[in-house]
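Thread: Newbie trying to understand structure tokens

Hi all, I'm a second-year student working on a class project, and my supervisor (Dr. K.) asked me to get a predicted structure for one chain before our next meeting. I've only ever worked with sequences, so writing a 3D structure as a token string is new to me. If someone could post the tokens and maybe explain what I'm looking at, I'd be very grateful. Here's the chain:
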Amino acid sequence: MLTVFLLLIAPAIAAAALYWWRRKQHVAMQSRVGMARQDCEQLLELVKLLQQHRGMSSARLGGDTSFEGPLRERRRDIDTALAGLARTVKAEADMPRPCITHNELVLFRHRWGELIEKLPTQSIEQSIALHTQLVGRALDWLAALGEARIELPSQDRLPAALVRNYTNHLPALAECLGQIRAIGAAAAAQKHCSPVARVRLMFLVTRATTLIGQASGGTTESVTVLARQAVDSLLGAVRRDILTGSEVKISAESYFATATAAIDAVYAWARHCGQHIGELLEQNGRPSTTETVQAG
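---
Reply by user tm_fold:
Sure, no problem. This is what the structure looks like when written as tokens:
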């Protein structure tokens, strides 16, 4: 009789064990992805601050002294953001293929220190190039973390396009706009846009238009609409106030504010994607009705 009873309840026991094993695996994955999201947020903040410092540096080197104080403040913020990456590096050290290593972070901080030291004697073009190299490295880390620690572990639970918007497409758009801000701020400070800067701005405006179209994907969410409006306002200012005519009439301060509003809107969109990722993982972590019945 006992044998028959055991045979009857064995499938239910096996189903319950499988359910709880899957649940445990999912909770562990969700925790790892949550940590990765924090790491990505740190990198997004670092990139944003470096981009701001690049734009302010361009305006300052162009002759606008009002950016002296904000530049010092951004340097302190960047140092804080870099210190915050220590936890990311420590977590990645335990991975078979780290997305960011201790030596890479040390080298990054060294190059950042060199940039600050040399900045007063650099040309605007040299400053933009040095800043852009650092931003590009941080964007590489962000994309690697997004793919390895968020997209691949949760590919059956998250839309790939959502993750890529968060850690790749929208940061790339923000960087394109950041370069537009830096070049345009210098032109506004000097009241003149050189032929080389004009060609570069025309290319960046076209690229930004393409990138925002790819990232939008036809969505009508308010955060996306607001970002598109802010970006359109910036690109309109570039076409109207910098690329039209021989003299740049917009002030560096006003232009910088318009560009920053557009970039901030894109970062708000990216962080909205990050929040959506967390919500989807939480929803997918709840046991379905079928699983609950089988486990019982």
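A couple of things are worth pointing out once you decode it. The chain has a mean pLDDT of 87. DSSP finds ten helices and no strands in the chain. Feel free to ask follow-ups in this thread.
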